[in-house]
Design goal:
mainly alpha; ABC transporter involved in vitamin B12 uptake, BtuC; two-stranded antiparallel sheet; 14 helices; 71% helix; 1% strand; globular
Length: 336
């Protein structure tokens, strides 16, 4: 007679639980790409049904695109910072500061080129200063960004007061019709993709984010790597300031409000871990930005109050961090 096989686990093993199955799925090589695409499709389909097709109107989709372009510019650049295990939520205030400086530069010279240069330079200087403080004094980047967010916002409020500054609306429409924003973003995105995935910069950032101590022992200069990541982030902040000016032709104290949360949510929605490491990628910012913009627009179209929207975004962020951002306990962070 044939021996019947017992459906019992070998001694010393345990049955896989729900968290074990989640980890197995999360560790699949294609998970960082399939997961955010699935979330985006579900959000678009869900709001399409909830609004009875209204979400797919041209004006709505253009609104999603315009907002996503600004968020994606910052988020793509901030993937360099996140890849090294750092966080910065002062990007909105830095963007507003850059935009104010850019508008004043244009009004003083009448040169679009000078306006763009000023925005980029101010963005790089502000973000590099944040990175410099962290690299030189070891203060956690999240603490630095909270302080600098208040400082940059205060300076913008001091300069503008209750007023706004603006540039010629016709000029903004000319730049928009010429595709300036779209072309500039494509060039910047390609630059970030090449720098992150085809040079040693991206490899070093992922190594630092995965295991900072080991990275330093192999000869990687942590301070220099961090400064580079914040400088690239500054380019994104400055470019997003230019895009914001062109989109509305005015700059006020509310510009960039909530951008820090949008960027963090976009990076996580794009499939990256907020702890950085080997699974970081530059396209996460773009993919996540489209999802964030669709989420914001869809909730507004469903008559969800702004306060409740923030709550929904917070819940989504926590769920995504739980699903996609677990850090192995054996790996020290860049802050340790």
């Amino acid at each position: 007679m044939e021996n019947t096989k017992e459906n019992k686990l070998p001694q010393g093993t345990r049955k896989l639980g729900v968290m074990d199955h989640i980890r197995i799925i999360r560790d699949k090589p294609m998970f960082p790409l399939i997961f955010p695409l699935t979330v985006l499709i579900l959000i678009i389909a869900g709001f399409g049904i909830a609004t009875e097709g209204g979400f797919f109107r041209k004006t709505v989709l253009m609104g999603v695109f315009n907002q996503a372009l600004i968020i994606a510019t910052v988020s793509t650049a901030m993937t360099f910072v996140f890849a090294a295990g750092n966080m910065d939520i002062s990007v909105g205030s830095a963007m507003a500061f850059s935009a104010v400086a850019g508008v004043y530069a244009y009004n003083a010279t009448g040169s679009v080129f000078f306006m763009v240069v000023v925005c980029l330079v101010i963005g790089v200087v502000l973000m590099s200063f944040n990175g410099f403080i962290h690299a030189m004094f070891g203060v956690r980047t999240i603490i630095i960004s909270i302080v600098m967010m208040q400082l940059y916002s205060a300076i913008v409020s001091l300069i503008l007061g209750p007023d706004t500054v603006s540039i010629d609306y016709g000029l903004c429409r000319q730049l928009e019709n010429a595709g300036f924003r779209n072309i500039s973003f494509i060039l910047f995105f390609v630059f970030c993709m090449i720098l992150f995935h085809s040079t040693s910069v991206g490899r070093k950032l992922k190594f630092v984010g995965g295991n900072a101590r080991c990275a330093q022992q192999t000869g990687i200069q942590y301070k220099n790597t961090v400064l580079i990541s914040f400088a690239v982030a500054g380019l994104g902040v400055g470019l997003s300031a230019v895009f914001s000016i062109i989109r509305t032709s005015t700059v006020g104290t509310t510009l960039g409000a909530g951008m820090g949360m949008d960027v963090m949510l976009a990076v996580v929605l794009g499939g990256m871990s907020i702890f950085g490491g080997s699974r970081s990628n530059a396209y996460a910012g773009l993919l996540g930005a489209v999802t964030v913009s669709a989420l914001n627009k869809g909730l507004l179209m469903c008559d969800v109050s702004p306060m409740l929207i923030q709550g929904v975004r917070g819940i989504v962020f926590l769920i995504l961090v739980f699903l996609n951002s677990e850090r192995p306990a054996t790996l020290p962070s860049a802050q340790d």
